[in-house]
Design brief:
single chain; 184 residues; alpha/beta; 5-stranded parallel beta sheet; 9 helices
Length: 184
C-alpha cells in the first residue's frame, strides 16, 4: 500500500465522479467524492487523502483553484491534480503557481490519472491512449453551453454560434464509450 491509495475526487458532475470512482477502484485506489468546495474540505479534513483530483470549474461561482491552498495545508505531500474541459496555458500556469502538481484535460481517464500520480509506467503511454476523441470534446463543450444558459437550447445555440436545429441534431447523438465514431 502506498500513501496514494486514498484520494478525493472533486467535480460538480456527479455522473463523471461515479464513473471515475469505479474505474479507479478497479485499479486499487479508494476514493471519496465531493461536488462542492465545502464538502471537499470536510472530507479532506476527515480522511487526509494522498491525492486530490479537482475540477477547475466547479459551479458558476466556484473555482477548483481555491481548493489548492487549503488542501496543501492539510497535507503537504498530497498530490493535487487539476482537471478542466477548458484548458489554457494561463490557467495551467496559475494552477501550478498555486501548488497543483499536475494539470489534466477533462475528461481525465483513470489511466491518465495513474500516470500523473506516477503509478503507471510512462513508457506505456501512446498518443491514442491520451487523445480525447473530437466528438467527446464537442459534446463537453455543448454541455457547458447548455449549463451556462440554464438548459435553453436556443440560447446555447446562439452562444455556440450555430443554428438551433443543428444543435438539436447534435444533442440527439450523445457520444459515449459504447458507441463507435460518429458517421460522417
Amino acid at each position: 500500500m502506498t500513501a496514494l491509495d486514498t484520494g478525493l475526487l472533486v467535480d460538480d458532475d456527479e455522473l463523471y465522479l461515479r464513473t471515475l470512482q469505479r474505474s479507479l477502484a478497479r485499479r486499487g485506489l479508494e476514493t471519496r467524492t465531493a461536488t462542492t468546495i465545502a464538502e471537499a474540505l470536510r472530507i479532506a479534513d476527515e480522511i487526509r487523502p494522498g491525492f486530490a483530483l479537482v475540477d477547475l470549474k466547479l459551479s458558476s461561482d466556484d473555482s477548483g483553484l481555491t481548493l489548492i491552498k487549503p488542501l496543501r495545508a492539510l497535507r503537504a505531500d498530497m498530490r493535487i491534480l487539476l482537471v478542466t474541459g477548458y484548458a489554457s496555458v494561463a490557467t495551467a500556469v496559475d494552477a501550478i503557481k498555486r501548488g497543483a502538481d499536475d494539470y489534466l484535460p477533462k475528461p481525465a481517464t483513470a489511466d491518465m490519472i495513474l500516470r500523473a500520480l506516477g503509478l503507471e509506467k510512462a513508457e506505456a503511454v501512446t498518443v491514442e491512449s491520451t487523445m480525447i476523441p473530437l466528438h467527446r470534446l464537442e459534446w463537453e463543450h455543448i454541455q457547458q453551453a447548455l449549463h451556462e444558459t440554464g438548459g435553453n437550447v436556443s440560447a446555447a445555440a446562439r452562444l455556440l454560434n450555430m443554428h438551433r436545429r443543428s444543435l438539436q441534431r447534435k444533442l440527439a447523438k450523445r457520444p459515449g464509450p459504447e458507441r463507435g465514431p460518429e458517421p460522417e
